[in-house]
Amino acid sequence: MKYFAHSENNRNKKHSLSEHLRQTANYAESFACKESYKAIFSVSGLLHDLGKYQPAFQNYLKNGGERGSVPHASWGAGYARLLGIIDASIIIDGHHKGLPDKSAWKSDTEPFKRGEVAGFEEIVKTFICDANINEVDIRKPDSLAFTESQREAFVRYLFSVLTDSDWLSTENHFDEDKFNSRIGTSLHVDMLIDKLEEEFSKKSKDGEINILRNNARDQARHQADMPCGFYSLALPTGMGKTLTSVSWALRHAKKNDLKRIIIVLPYINIIDQTAQTLKDIFGEEWVLEHHSNYNEDDSGEREEPESCSPLKKRKELACENWDYPIIVTTTVQFFESLFSSRPSKCRKIHNIAESVVIFDEVQTLPKEVILPTLKMLRDIQDVMNTSFLFCTATQPAFEKRQGFDGIDNIYPLIEDSAVLYEKIKRVEYHLLNDLNPMDNSGLLEAVMKTGNSALVIFNTKKAALEFYSTARNEGDWEKKYHLSTAMCPAHRKGVIKDIRNDLAAKKKILVISTQLIEAGVDFDFPVVFRAMAPLEAIIQSAGRCNREGNLGEMGGDVFLFKLQDSGMPDRTYSACAGHAEELIKQDISRLHDHNIFNEYYAQVIRLYVDPDRFNINEVRKKFNFKTVNDSYRIIQNTSEGLYIYNYNDESRQLLHSLEHKEFLSKEDYRTMQAYTVQAYKYFIFKNSELCKTMPQGFMVWYGNYDPETGISLAPIEADKLVV
Questions:
Q1: pLDDT recorded at residue 640
Q2: Taking a C-beta distance cutoff of 8 angstroms, is the pair 58, 123 a contact?
Q3: Domain 422-594 classified CATH 3.40.50.300?
Q4: N or C: which end of the chain has fewer CB within 10 A?
Q5: How far is CA 442 from CA 436, 448, 512, 562, in A?
Q6: Do the bridges between strand 639-644 and strand 556-561 make them parallel or antiparallel, or are there none, so unpaired?
Q7: Chain centroid to CA 210: how far?
Q8: What percent of the residues of the chain are helix, what percent strand, and what percent coil, each to the nearest 5?
Q9: Is 425 left (phi over 0), alpha (psi -120 to 50) or beta?
Q10: At what angle do helices 666-673 and 649-658 cross, to 10 degrees?
């Protein structure tokens, strides 16, 4: 009798089960980053679909039936458990439904252990005979020397390997053209280094800042021959840390035979900017952007655009498993994949192995999950031979110390960062009204007195919107701008472009913004006003002042202020802002001290923050994968994307072009992101008459949209409703 894994493809050929098992095992083995992993990777592939030898499953393939009506994953999981290959058993049990909690895995496999499953022994014999299995193929692999958390990370790696291998084999059967579109491109290090050096050769070498940039880059390059581990690149804002980090990463990859570079950024607007810079240097074909406001689990049901170029098609496919030389992605995408239990999200994890991962603006990682975040990175580094580089102008205290189980050794690429920060001093800090609370009129008067273009940054959308309303008809600025996440990305992008053009043209402008402007938006204002905030926000805000050092010895001016009745985004933010205020009032000159942020970070973690609020490290040790998935979030607030119908004619036309499609392509969703605002579910509930869920599953906002400030809401409600 012939046994099959999948039904007929478009060539009317069924997928041989033994062929599928062997093919999955071969793919899995090829993904091993260490020789000692190959045996368990292979046996996981061989056993994963053992349950498809059930007569009931073969009958289901022949005669049809409801999808999932003949469960099969637990059969391979049960056999792996009997063989004592526990890690393989766990991932096989979850290869369709997702990685389970330990109790669920035990429940699924216990009947097989007890011999309570009728016909199980016969199915195993059929599998061994049909797949031509010998004892060496399925013997228990040698045990690997892992700690509990390292083993948990290894199970995630193994799960990712099985998921990608299984899906690749299945895709090869059903859609050979799609499979063949996945042309794996290796990291051509020497060629990419040459292109980057050509870019550096075009840049000016004159002036103190350029000399300092070049010296910093040379220092970093000289550390590239170090082994895989943890590294830091602490450079003042505007010192070119993105390209310096990539220059180091390419050489480090060459030395350690690493396969890709992954750049992880906190905000989508920085991703667009960074990815475009790298594409301009290396070429479009070398850089993959991966971010989405939409659920990637739905991607399998979307149609592909008919006019999709081969490169575009390859990039779309590479978003599924990160088989690409240079990847630019978000912290949400990266970490919520690492901690996920879902097959579609975990599929890419194995390609983090043997990579250089660059975290830019690392100070934005949420403090409430920083311990499990660092613990996972330590485990990934040990298990998957990966190097991590932390980049920021404000380096947090991630090192291990008493009461904080951080990273043992983080090697700095720049040895004399403190000297560099002293030389690059470009602003003076001032306390407005001695930090006594002011009203908006008093603040506006202080901003007007500077007689300059000014950037004013607030902690909340409510505060920014209220000050914008106060300033709208005041002052002699040529233009006033508002920036917040109540505006859709296309709107923000247009405003940011206008601001850059006005600054370049030396126009006198006023920009009123929330903290979205503080990381990666390279404005250069002579004066910045910042509402009292956590220290990292203050220092990042200062990076938007006299960025290029063109204001001479006097430098730029950064004014810190407090508003009357001003709110904060959350309690942790408020506590950190309070601690920063205490430090600054003691000695404002310490804001120029390179070490202050490291000290501050250690203090606020000790005093105000539970760095593992959801007890994730302990849950990981218990192998409760589903619980970890449900607990770990980079962004805690539950929100949903709202497509803005009334932004402009383009947003309206796009919706009309999509509303009658049965399925939307990934490109459709990507295009929609430009007109999408993340909104809290309470907002959607409260304004349900203005929201409509489309048949394809996305939601549309038909309410007002202000051309200057975004979704039109009463100021008092703005922060409660819009992320």
A1: 86
A2: no
A3: yes
A4: N
A5: 11, 10, 15, 11
A6: unpaired
A7: 31
A8: 50, 15, 35
A9: beta
A10: 160
3-state secondary structure of 83: coil
Residue 236 amino acid letter: P
The residue-averaged pLDDT of 389-405 equals: 88
Q: Tens digits of per-residue pLDDT, 429-484?
A: 999 999 999 999 999 999 999 999 999 999 998 899 999 999 998 989 999 999 99
Could you give the CA distance from residue 482 to residue 135 in angstroms, rounded to a whole number?
69
Report the share of the chain in percent with pLDDT over 90: 66
Residues 6+ apart with CB under 8 A from 125: none
Residue at 689: amino acid letter = E
* Crossing angle for the helix pair 17-30 and 38-47, to the nearest 10 degrees: 160
Q: Does domain 4-181 have CATH number 1.10.3210.30?
A: yes
Concatenated DSSP letters for 463-492?
Answer: HHHHHHHHHTT-S--SEEEEE-TTS-HHHH
pLDDT in tens, 9-35: 988 999 999 999 999 999 999 999 999
The SS3 assignment for 134 reads coil
Highest mean pLDDT among 246-250, 317-321, 490-494, 682-686: 246-250
Give the per-residue pLDDT at 715.
39
Split at pLDDT 50, 70, 90, the class of 522 is: confident
DSSP for 189-235, please give it. Answer: HHHHHHHHHHHHHHS---SHHHHHHHHHHHHHHTTTTSPSSEEEEE-
Domain with CATH 3.40.50.300 in the chain: 225-404, 422-594
- Asked if 583 and 535 touch (Cβ cutoff 8 Å), the reply is yes
Q: How far apart (Å, rounded) are the C-alpha atoms in residues 99 and 343?
A: 8
Length of the chain counted residue by residue: 723
Which position has the token pair 């458990």? 81
* CB distance 86 to 39 below 8 Å: no
Q: Tokens 């990370």 label which residue?
A: 153
Structure tokens at 379: 């485990």
Q: Which helix (H) or strand (E) holds 41?
A: helix 38-47
Name the pLDDT band for 139 (thresholds 50, 70, 90): confident
**Which CATH fold topology does 225-404 show?**
Rossmann fold (3.40.50)
Lowest-confidence pick of 212-221, 355-364, 430-439, 548-557: 548-557
* CATH 1.10.3210.30 domain position(s) in the chain: 4-181
Say yes or no to pLDDT of 91 above 80.
yes
Q: Which of 314, 269, 171 is nearest to 517 (CA)?
A: 269
**Which helix (H) or strand (E) element contains residue 287?**
strand 287-290
How big is the chain by its Cα radius of gyration, in Å? Answer: 27
Report the predicted TM-score, pTM, of the whole model to 2 decimal places: 0.89
Cα 377 to Cα 369: distance, rounded to the nearest angstrom: 12
The secondary structure of 616-629, three-state, reads: HHHHHHCCCHHHHH
**Whether the Cβ atoms of residue 451 and residue 475 lie closer than 8 Å to each other:** no
Quick one: CA dihedral 283, 285, 288, 292, positive or negative? positive
H helix runs in 450-553, sequence order? 461-471, 489-504, 535-542
Rounded to the nearest 10°, the torsion over CA 536, 542, 547, 552 is: -140
What's the rounded mean pLDDT across residues 408-427?
86
Q: Are 700 and 655 in contact (CB under 8 A)?
A: yes
Residue 594 to residue 596: CA distance in whole angstroms: 6
The DSSP secondary structure of 128-170, one letter per residue, reads HHHTT--TTTTSPPPPP---HHHHHHHHHHHHHHHHHHHHHHH
Tokens read off for 119 = 């016909």
In the chain, what is the greatest distance between 2 CA atoms, to the nearest angstrom?
88
